[in-house]
Amino acid sequence: MRFSLFIHMERWDDAISEEQHWANLVELVQLAEAGGFGTVWIGEHHSMEYTASPNPMPQLAYLAAKTSTIHLGAGTIIAPFWSPIRAAGETALLDVISGGRAELGVARGAYQFEFNRMAGGMPAADGGKYLRELVPAVRKLWEGDYAHDGELWQFPVSTSVPKPVQKPTPPIWVAARTPETHEFAIANRCNVQVTPLMKGDEEVQDLKNKFDEARKNHADADFTPQIMVLRHTYVHSPEEPEGWRAGAAGISKFYRTFSAWAFGKKDPDNGFLEPMPEENFAERPEFELENIRRNSVIGTPDEVIERVRGYEEMGYDEYSFWTDNSMTHAEKKRSLQLFIDHVVPQFAN
Predict the structure, then answer these.
(1) 141, 144, 163, 255: least CB-packed within 10 angstroms?
(2) 298: which strand partners?
(3) From the DSSP assignment, how many helices (H) and strands (E) are in the chain?
(4) What values do phi and psi take at 281, rounded to 5?
(5) What is the per-residue pLDDT across 106-117, written as a single tens digit (0 to 9) for each?
(6) Which distant-in-sequence residues (6+ apart) come within 8 Å of 60 by Cβ?
(7) What span, in angstroms and rounded, lies between the C-alpha atoms of 45 and 51?
(8) Distance in angstroms (rounded) separating the CA atoms of residues 285 and 198
């Protein structure tokens, strides 16, 4: 089992500056690298302070200079907001800057809010066809001269400049949920990222089953795809038996804010949206703190080891420690350090 860190700058209000939030992110990434994590993932979101990340590439390029071994993953770029030439060139440049540590994750996108601002109001559900056209085109551009005449993009003979350091190409990861997306990823020599969001381990198993079925359908391929599970994670000391409550509350606020952006009717105020109030979810058992504790990975080191061991037994290759929640930097740092000190050594190869 490998470990990675999934992280964004999170601003819940103006109490902390953008500069301080960025310094906090860098500190956690350096802590993860020192603790044996293999990759840091930073995604793409627009006009949202609670996931401030308009482009993962410059963030990852900066981190390349502040680290030496950890891989630098765009986790994930939103396919309809990129052209294949731009995605290929920017990822390759990151690979050069970092000495061959770039990884590219691609998703179709989720928030209609972003599509209304970045793609002229295109339905977010249409993003999948962009993903399916972008991924093979990027790989072709990395390989050399390539002209593209697709449904969504057309361009004459072009190539990625620069070329990536990694051969044959940097790893590509596809964010997958449906069987069709798992099939596409493996057919196109991509690894797979999955997240059950607020759902429990039955969803983690179901997503792995979809991956396994897709692998079975491509059993003759000379490529062995990897699968990563992304989970909100919070580790507390065994000496604080009620310590889980703070983690569950922080994740609750994250998802209530997610709901405000995804389903709410209010316009943001200078990039901020208040989380939907708790009473709005009175009939939603997944928002009860006990259920958040059960469905996310929250607990003492021993409890977290048991959960991660279960994912290893399911056949997951990578566990991504998702830091995004409304907790303070000090709380996140303490949780990550407990994970590094007590959980990671139990999975050392």
Answers:
(1) 144
(2) 234
(3) 11, 11
(4) -115, 20
(5) 999 999 999 999
(6) 40, 42, 72, 73, 74, 94, 98, 102
(7) 6
(8) 11
Q: Over the stretch 275-324, which tens digit does the pLDDT of each residue have? A: 999 999 999 999 999 999 999 999 999 999 999 999 999 999 999 999 99
The rounded distance, in Å, linking the Cα atoms of 28 and 33 is 9
For residue 94, count CB atoms less than 10 angstroms from its CB and return exposed for 0-12, middle for 13-18, buried for 19 or more: buried
Contact (CB, 8 A) for 80 and 47: no
Contact of 281 with 190, CB cutoff 8 Å: no
- What are the CA-CA distances from residue 284 to residues 16, 133, 270 (Å)? 32, 37, 29
For residues 74 and 42, is the Cβ–Cβ distance under 8 A?
Answer: yes
- For residue 321, list its beta bridge partners: 5, 231
Nearest-angstrom CA–CA distance, 137 and 153 = 10
Residue located via tokens 């409304």: 326
Specify the DSSP element, H or E, that contains 75: strand 71-78
Which token pair is 34? 């020192």
Q: How far apart are CA 27 and CA 273, in angstroms?
A: 27
Tell me the backbone φ, ψ of residue 149, rounded to 5 degrees.
Answer: -130, 75
Residue 26 backbone dihedrals phi, psi, to 5 degrees: -60, -40
Beta bridge partner(s), residue 74? 42, 104
User: Of all helices (H) and strands (E), which one includes residue 53?
Assistant: none
Q: Angle at which helices 201-217 and 179-187 pack, to 10 degrees?
A: 50
- Indicate the pLDDT class of residue 348, thresholds 50, 70 and 90: confident
Judge contact between 261 and 267, C-beta under 8 A.
no
Between CA 320 and CA 333, with CA 62 as vertex, the angle to 5 degrees is: 45
Tokens read off for 148: 């593209």
Buried b (16+ CB within 10 A) or exposed e, 153-185: eeeeebbbeebbbbeebbbbbbbbbeeebbbbb
Residue 263, pLDDT > 80, answer: yes
Closest C-alpha to 161, from 100, 234, 96, 257: 96
